[in-house]
Fold:
Amino acid sequence: MNVRNLENIDSRGYAVNISNSFDLGFDPKLLPVELTDKSYGNDVSPSFYFRAKESYFVLWVEEKDKNLRELEGSARYTLVHGVNLGDEESPEIYDDHNKGVVLSTESFFELEEEINRLIS
Structure:
């Protein structure tokens, strides 16, 4: 399992645009999916996408310190449905606002369980 754009950081990578020291709260290698960084310069926190079966999902990671989060009351980890506005060769994954939130939690373990459920 790999995390694209974390080691080969490009201009979109969160390590450049968010902060090299942003604490995800987990080791991406522990997840059974390949996370692809989709963070942009105007994002306060990093986001990633992954594919589970035939569906895309977007993972938003907020600051550990609740006082530093962009939206008051937001969870550390928010998992939403994704939609591909590109194609399979060059995916452009965005939040699918037509579907609800899959998971909103403070716990990496709950996030991991949900991802395992999605891929099984």
